[in-house]
Amino acid sequence: MGIEFLEQKFQRYISICPHNREYLRATALRVSRIQTEMRILLDDITQQWCPMCKAPCCQCLPVDGWFTECDYFLFRMLYPAPVDLRAVGHDGKSCFFLGERGCRLPSDMRPFPCVKVNCKNVIEELKRYGRLDAFTALNNELEQLQEKVYPLLADIVSYTVFQAQNYEPPVST
Questions:
Q1: Would you say 115 and 33 are in contact if contact means Cβ atoms under 8 Å apart?
Q2: Residue 107: how many CA atoms within 13 Å on its side-chain side?
Q3: Which of 3, 30, 101, 158 is most buried, judging by how many CB atoms fall within 10 Å of its CB?
Q4: d(C-alpha 38, C-alpha 168), whole Å
Q5: Could you give the CA distance from residue 19 to residue 153 in angstroms, rounded to a whole number?
Q6: Which residues are paired to 99 by β-bridges?
Q7: Do 73 and 25 contact (CB within 8 A), yes or no?
Q8: Is the pTM of this model over 0.70?
Q9: E runs forming strands in 11-50
Q10: φ/ψ of residue 102, rounded to 5
Q11: Which residues contact 1 (CB under 8 A, 6 or more apart)?
Q12: How far apart are CA 138 and CA 131, in angstroms?
């Protein structure tokens, strides 16, 4: 999903649901803290393994970031739209935010798929350094925050804001 499209959704949402702004900002600050702690656990490992990888995550798909509505909206609570962070002279194969020195997005607020590790080598290194449990706990906390934000964004993924926020599950009889 392109940044411009996500930005339009964000602007529309904020105009329709300004009452959710403070909750989203508070959640974004928690996500920022979690991602900062994740980076501390990962940085030396990813600097060692990622350059040697035959299929580095950031270099295998020409996407405008891995943003979903959820993580884009949280990103926008702390940072301006990342339009100017796209790499100049993009190679057409990698993420548009991958520059010569790595990711150009703020290290504390990257798309959730970018901070969730699916690489066997990185997971093995986290184990070897005794960091896997801490990383898993942070990842779980990030997922829990995501699950709390998704219902607030139901208008973006389903019907209207007001229907979504007034929705009550049917009572089973």
A1: no
A2: 10
A3: 3
A4: 36
A5: 13
A6: 102
A7: no
A8: yes
A9: none
A10: 110, -160
A11: 64, 67, 68, 69
A12: 11
CB 141 within 8 A of CB 34: yes
Beta-carbon-side half-sphere exposure of residue 70 (alpha carbons within 13 Å): 17
Residue indicated by tokens 């990622």? 50
Tokens encoding 126: 């986290």
Cα–Cα nearest to 31, from 129, 108, 105, 103: 108
Residue pLDDT, tens place only, 58-97: 887 777 778 888 999 999 999 999 999 988 877 778 888 8
DSSP tag of 109: S
Residue for token pair 């960091």: 131
CB 114 within 8 A of CB 98: no
| CA-atom Rg of the chain in angstroms | 18
Q: What are the domain boundaries of the chain? A: 3-163
Pair 87, 98: CB distance under 8 Å: yes
Q: Sign of the C-alpha dihedral, residues 108, 111, 114, 116?
A: positive
Per residue in 100-129, pLDDT (tens digit) is 888 899 999 999 888 887 788 899 999 999
**99 phi and psi, to 5 degrees?**
-105, -175
Name the token pair of 74.
């949280």
How far, in Å, are 68, 165, 167 from residue 9 at the CA level?
A: 11, 17, 21
